Amino acid sequence: MNYRQLGNTDLKVSELSFGTWAIGGSWGNTNDEESLKALQHAMDAGVNFFDTADVYGDGHSEELLAKATKGKENDIHIATKFCRAGDIEDPDTYSERQVREYCENSLKRLERETIDLYQIHCPPLAILKDGKVFEVLDKLKAEGKIRHYGVSVETVEEGLYCLENTDVSALQIIFNIFRQKPLDELIPQAYQKGVGILARVPLASGLLTGKFSENHSFQADDHRNFNQNGEAFNVGETFAGLEFNKGVQLSEQLRWIANDRDSMSKAALRWIMDHEEITCAIPGFKTVKQVEDNLKSLDVPSFSAEEMNKLQKFYQHDVQDHIRGAY
């Protein structure tokens, strides 16, 4: 396992880390016993960083992480997020009283005294510009409740605003072969300023595994069913903003990336890690096998400059006009 510095912080995290939305809920059926085995398997392989949120299964993923990392609090780093348990448009959601409550509840579920990275969970740009929430985060940091803070953003504009106007240690962004816009400005500027980048939705909600056919059906409680068109939250969080059948068609054009790399999913993760400016990719998982498959991306060949250029042109000519929503 390779480790990368999280921006200018004192944290070194595994370049392949994991997100825990899927084991918390909204991705179909889950099994806690299997989830805990999968977490252990990841840690045994050297993964030392996990991303979660207070709304993943109403805190269930945080509780699972507490069980899995008991006694390893100094070695296994956890990033969690807040604000979406309330009205994200309401300034009171970001008041000191409310943020303290969110933080204390997460600490209790995580069974920790300190949160390594505390992130605002995709707030509106107006809240970022208001700025009061960052004053609260500075207080929590001074008190030792959190070590570092960051923002999970939906758009490049939000990310650039944070870089220019706040003291964030990290930004979490949607970044994958289908979502390359951050490469133009956001990622280079973050790298220059010493701000870490966590790449979420790295497999475009499964599109980049190449395993789906058009008209595939998902379980009712899977966001890939109930949020296909942004009905529940930002459309970009599901299939990276692509309409599902269009995404399937585009993924068919990418089958070549699996050449000499075993599978499309391993190749897609390798592509992200081939960008040195990215701190880590955070794919989701529900089973030990999924963790194993994702870990194998560490061993497949990197992309050549020619292949990188080919993928950039593919994004520019075939993909970007089909992404829905602001990004």
Automatic annotation (TrEMBL):
GO molecular function per UniProt: oxidoreductase activity
InterPro entries for this protein: AKR (IPR020471), AKR2_Oxidoreductase (IPR053135), NAD(P)_OxRdtase_dom_sf (IPR036812), NADP_OxRdtase_dom (IPR023210)
NADP-dependent oxidoreductase domain mapped to chain residues: 15-315
Pfam families, per the entry: Aldo_ket_red (PF00248)
Superkingdom: Bacteria
PANTHER family: D-THREO-ALDOSE 1-DEHYDROGENASE, NADP-DEPENDENT OXIDOREDUCTASE DOMAIN-CONTAINING PROTEIN
Protein's recorded name: Predicted oxidoreductase
Species in which this protein is naturally found: Sediminibacillus halophilus
